[in-house]
Amino acid sequence: MQAFQKFDIPTPSFLAGPAKQLLIGGKWLPSATGKEFDTFNPATGKVIARLAEGDAEDVDRAVKAARHAFEGAWSTWKPYDRQRLLMKVHDLVEKNFDELALLETLDMGAPLSRTQGLKRWLSQVIMFYATQTVNTSGATLQNSLPGDISTSTIKAPVGVVGGIIPWNGPLISQWWLLGPVLASGCTLVLKPAEDASLTVLRIAELLQEAGVPDGVINVVTGFGTGAGAALAAHRDVDRVAFTGSTETGRKIVAASAGNMKRLQLELGGKSPDIVFADANLDAAVPGAAMAAFSNSGQICFAGTRLFVERRIHEEFVERLSAFSRTLRVGNGLDPQVQLGPLISGKQLDRVMHYVGLGSTEGATLAAGGKRLGGELAGGYFVEPTVFSAVNNDMTIAREEIFGPVISVIPFDNAEQALRLANDTEYGLGGAVWTQNVATAHKMANGIKSGTVWVNCYGAIDPSVGFGGYKMSGYGAKGGPQSIEGFLYQKVVYINLG
Hints:
Helix content: 25-40%
Structural class: alpha/beta
CATH topology of the largest domain: Aldehyde Dehydrogenase, Chain A, domain 1
Strand order of the largest sheet: 14-15-16-13-12-17-18
Radius of gyration: 24 Å
CATH superfamily of the largest domain: Aldehyde Dehydrogenase, Chain A, domain 1
Number of strands: 22
Shape: globular
Distance between the termini: 80 Å
Number of helices: 18
CATH class of the largest domain: Alpha Beta
Number of domains: 2
Strand content: 15-25%
């Protein structure tokens, strides 16, 4: 019996029928090879759909369709036209949101309480990019040239964008691409993660229903070694946006050299979360816990290195461990569940490997650390895990685990906290918990990361945006600056004489 039937939730009609196909040039097509692959519900380990397995030939077809659309009628659409299109997309997404939330839960495991809570965010991000259609402009510039020459700048869309997004939240991730592509007048070939492609495919249907022209948005499902690598290296792709591991990010940087693609990369993280003794512990304990445990720890900027001032370290670990034991882990269709499964058996093995390393290297396992079975057997569940007495040089404090594992590291003063916080190759996020305004400013200025939170964690507003630093990548997601990455500037000289 399928899990969603067990919870009296109707099977989404989208899952019925044959394998899901590729969207290329406005048509749903099988892969060139005819290959397909299964996608699984990580809460049960059971197949929920089959997908077309695209490869380099399919990517080439999609890029050609995107180029044809970019140079065709889509190039004549005015900002007002694109804005109205985005507003129609917005209304269709809202109308079908419950289905999208359910598909996301079934496909990648996040609890319905989390996916259903994304409705406001999705509305915000689409409406934000609708405003950006009319919010780009050039400038008239003074010059010192002889004669009567006018100089000005124009912003123009870069062309075909290749997008590669991860499995830990495709319902969100795709909009960092769909929004600015539709707002700027670019076109897109989107490669979703093989582990979680369903909401991308369903939204692609909604985009067609909204009237997005053929070829403007193309979707090629498949694996990174086939479709992803081909998209990153394709010489007719003008820009690549990638979210994923730093290791893969390096390969994409190398592949971009073929035609000097523009890049936006959001890569790994090992974000510091710093708690001072004067913090409001009633807020800091659950805040720090969910900074690492939210989405079962599968968030790039998760606060997995938790620095706690030594004089409250013991108390904080006790309270943190107690809180972690209250979190209900299970099938995301259960309305009482707060943490769902990891995405796959492979990811579960990875997380359990790091849990074993933590104990081997001398950290104290204060809570969790076990795979969950019983009623959850077949799924990829692990207890929220707390390690104390961690040294910042331990493997669990250096490497991204991407699971619900916190490493608690004591510190003695603000200077030491900053030094330890910045002793990492990553720079995606960071946070500080304190009631001292001076301390808050000092830490916010000193933490070397793209985003810093004070007395909260993980808040992201599409109109503000975020980005990475150091080995966590570069380029903006959201905010007025993000649209600039989809445009290039040309200077115009006009002889008026």
